[in-house]
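Key idea: predict the complex, not the pieces.
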Amino acid sequence: MNKTVNQRAWWFVLPVVLLVAFNAVIPLMTVVNYSVQESFGSNMFFWSGVRWFEEVLRSERFHASLLRQLAFTAAILAIEVPLGLAIALAMPRRGPWVSVCLVLMALPLLIPWNVVGAMWNIMALPTIGLLSEVLHGLGFDYNYTREPAAAWFTVILMDVWHWTSLVVLLCYAGLVSIPDAYYQAAKIDGARAWAVFRYIQLPKLRYVLTIAILLRFMDSFMIYTEVVVLTGGGPGTATTFLSIDLVKTALGQFDLGPAAAMSLVYFLIILLMSWLFYTLMMRNQSR
Amino acid sequence: MSLELKRITKRVGAETYIHETSLVLEERSFNTLLGPTLAGKTTLMQLMAGLDRPTAGEIWFRGRNVTGVPVQKRNVAMVYQQFINYPNFTVYENIASPLRVARMAAQEIDRRVMHAAELLRLTPMLKRRPAELSGGQQQRTAIARALVKDADLVLLDEPLANLDYKLREELRDELPRFFADRNCIVVYATTEPGEALLFGGNTATLHAGGITQFGETAALYRRPADLVTARVFSDPPINTAQVVKRGGEIRLGGFRLPVGQAAAGLPDGAYVIGIRPHHVTPSPVTANAAPIEGTVVIAELSGSESAVHFDIDGQTWVSQSPGIHPFEVGSVARLYVDMDHTMFFDLDHRRVEGAD
Amino acid sequence: MAQIQLRELRHSYVDQPAADSDWALKRLTIDWADGGAYALLGPSGCGKTTLLNVISGLLRPTGGQILFDGRDVTDASPEQRNIAQVFQFPVIYDTMTVYDNLAFPLRNRGVDAREVDRRVREVAEMLELDDMLRHRAAGLTADGKQKISLGRGLARSDVNVIMFDEPLTVIDPHLKWVLRSKLKELHQRIRVTMIYVTHDQTEALTFADQVVVMNDGEIVQTGTPVELFERPNHTFVGHFIGSPGMNVLPCEIADGRAAFGGLSVESVNAGAWRGDGGRLELGVRPEFVSFAPAGADDGIPVRVVKALDAGRHRIVETEHAGHKIKMLVPEGEAIPSDTAHVRFAPERTWVYRDGWLVTGEGAAR
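Result:
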């Protein structure tokens, strides 16, 4: 249904347009500007065309951090989505415990990200940390500041703790909206719990899962604060993911050109992969 | 003083929702839009109200061109199939809401709201919220809100469809009374021919985005212009058959039936006949009732009426008659066709008449 | 197939039911014979859906017993009771084909593949779905999906009873007629006990051999459509069944005869009244009220208020002594324009006391 056109609506959009222009569009254009120039000091700029882009794309360091990032995101999705779904399935859909569960699930999402990093930092400390104690007690030689494997383990554990709740809440909302009659019909048909999951719940959750996966993908690809606070990107470069690498290049070495080029490449990668994901999932929907 | 639709069309993308249609609705008339689901009733009503623009054509109201005038500027009220009320307002506030928006004086608002509430028998419920009301009461609240506005055009989109059978009957009985003293045009959309008949007034039959016929309801019912209109305006579905007329008879499934007065003057040839189920009866009702026989497929006794489905000429016909007439499934039933009420349609499906 | 018996069944959705209104079902005892077609008819909130869910096992009743073929199944799950249910809106497994949908309940019970195939094809042919078996179920229209829901129940050869919860709600009106007749045909063919819940009397009366009329959690009357029509036990049944419903007029009884508006009216049971007070009413259906021929002056003098055309008959509203009397006049018959006399068919005119039919033993409970 077409609504009749009301020109006055454009005035409401103006403040937002200005805000976005200042905070996003102009900085973005500045970055693009830097990425095609070479700078000496803050005043002298020479056009360098695609040189920085070539450098970035050929740089081994960039490849390494990209690979690390992909591995991390893959691990995150592989753990958080099924886990989140399982928890959502286990949560009660009716009764007094519903609100309790929802609040518990929401708590991790409310904590500022650097606090999350700091929390897990303390928990993982080799001498006084709770996590460290438990793992030592189980017989593991755990030291996240020295062993890359331990650092990865800790970072992944932290992210799972922090963000699985989001998947849980999204899946829960989807589950709750399935009418009772479907469950009743399944009962009457003699379907077991697995069949109910496979033939009723999963199909009806398709849309919600798409959103959950997309959100987690984009966010995990851009992860910065928690990891920096927890490991600083270490030990060495073991947990230096894309955004951490980017910041090191830009701020650490004050090389604006390569940094700008790298951020654009980064931006385009996320854009491409998100688009791919989205199209794939949407195509499954409409079939 | 009227609502005129001049050659309006509505296309969305590649689909045509309303084919070129013209319609004139008179002041103070009750008009029913009758048609199956997706025939275009809701789209047409939205165009009339100004909720939507036609792709082509014009809409004139009381001599003014109102095409494209948004609904806020028109004086229109609408009642929907789902009982739409403000959930956190009391019934009183719900009914008063359009008047508050129009900034009427509080005294005038009170007078109008109490009058509408009394008309709709809602006076004891004025302090309740919609969630505390039954379906019928919620719909009455929605109707009261539409009435209190004193709109020029009142549109009702299948308002009784979500109500229980008996509630529907009650509200349907009362509905004409609500609009009796008003100076507005009422348009009522429904899928049930029975409702159109009971309201009287005028009816427009819709089919696949076009109005097949518009006119006085009883006339449309008894003298439909074509087979599509006859079909839309039949519940249970009309019985049809392809026949050949020779002289004063037609042949149907091996039976020869004398044609009635109204068709005697038609030229010989192939026709499609249409006859409503209540004109096929177990015993002859009129002098011109011709006998046919068919094998009974289903027999239904519903207390006041009997219906029997039987096979004839390769298709299933339905007979409906008052009283109890038991039939055995599988047996051969003898039924009488009222030839005076049999309609003849030519091969373009337009109804034809030819008195001798 | 099973004979179903309900004993003292009652149910409340409230934890501590105190008032009468807390009970959704109030003490029901009824027997349903094997293989019959039954309808539970009543207005919204009368408890028919609650009763349906109690019988199917989706709801455990607060009190009472349910017996299938003499076996107590009150604690049994729906699967154990071998029932099938068709819901208000089509419930199908979207990802499966029509064939797999129909086969699902059989496969869950471990039926072997050849038997599954045979049953599925048999059911598909009955429901005219046989050319859609390979299609994805999600692509069908609403009535096709309802047929699949129904087919899942029919596929199981051991099903005791098939329950329908207002199944034609989302079906197009012109298809309702077709589907309704199909259900009747199916029942005549396979003779499984079918219980059909609805608020639409046309659906109930055309489908069922026996109709159970419910109101406010209680069974008001059980009988064939004809019985309910010709001899309503309660004015509620008279009002609820029939379109328009029965005329209910206040009356008095003197010397064994009923009198309405000062005129003596012949009825079936006025003589059975024991003179024990109560609100007396006269009930006669519009189908059994007719105009006396012009010139005759026996019957009740009325003023003709309005006449509505309903196609196959006209609904005429008349008035006497401030009371409305509705009647049905067949197509083609003349309707007097101003005043006339009407007659009530004596063998169809009943006297009610406090809503209940007056019988020899007092109220007909």
